[in-house]
Design brief:
Elements: H1 3-9, H2 24-45, H3 57-70, H4 77-108, H5 110-123, H6 128-139, H7 143-167, H8 171-179, H9 184-218, H10 227-236, H11 240-268
Helix pairs in contact: 3-11, 4-5, 4-7, 4-9, 4-10, 6-7, 7-9, 8-9, 9-10, 9-11, 10-11
Protein name: Taurine transport system permease protein
Membrane topology: Multi-pass membrane protein
Keywords: Cell membrane, Membrane, Transmembrane, Transmembrane helix, Transport
Amino acid sequence: MPTDTLSAKLPRKPAVRATPRFDPRRWAAAGSLAGLFGLWWLATHFGWVDTLFLPAPEQLYQALQRLLAEGYVDASLWQHIGTSLLRVLLALGAAVLTAIPLGILMGLNPLLGAALDPLVEFYRPIPPLAYLPLIVIWFGIGELSKVLLIYLALFAPLLIATAAGVRRVDKSRIQAVRCLGANRWQVVRHVVLPSALPDVLTGLRIALGVGWSTLVAAELIAANRGLGFMVQSAAQFLATDVVVLGILLIAGIALSFELGLRWLQRRFTSWE
């Protein structure tokens, strides 16, 4: 009997629809956020906390509408957001261009790593506000000082994570590629970088978190725009709604970066 005829006579299984799997972690995350929002609403509407110290959710919505319509201190809300984003992205670009290559060199060259590691570990624990006055004295109060302060906060975590990722690369893979005639650049490109990519992306996530936390300190340097400036200026006038809204905007943008980097990790390091 022909194969086509036989397959036509065999009973076919009904198509089974893929049902979404229940993920308790998503429900736990949504539940914690909903519980926090509910507690916030109850505390402000039943007088548990004075709205001068913690504004109600509808007050934040009104503050958002006011900022979108009128701006804040001669700049629109989008200009404040764009200025802060530009400072962080410039610092991030400089950190990626310097910390990742230097981290690769430190990971491949133990002597260079031993020479630079004490210098990095010396400045890494120092809070940015501690060397902020020195940066102002050296570089003035312009944009360079703000970007440099954020850059210094980003540099160390990314450098340390990259060097650690390179040191963990399987040496047998490097030797195998060299036996096939690959030069040093080809080894770095095809073996070292892909193997160290999970650590690099993890370091980038940590660095961005530190960078956003440094943003407010950076915008203390004679700034007239930026989310950090808006928060600091509003705090001086006890405009708590603007302060909380600015904090939530900073957190929301930082969360967007975090989710984007998590997607990159799933997309390019799914083999891990």
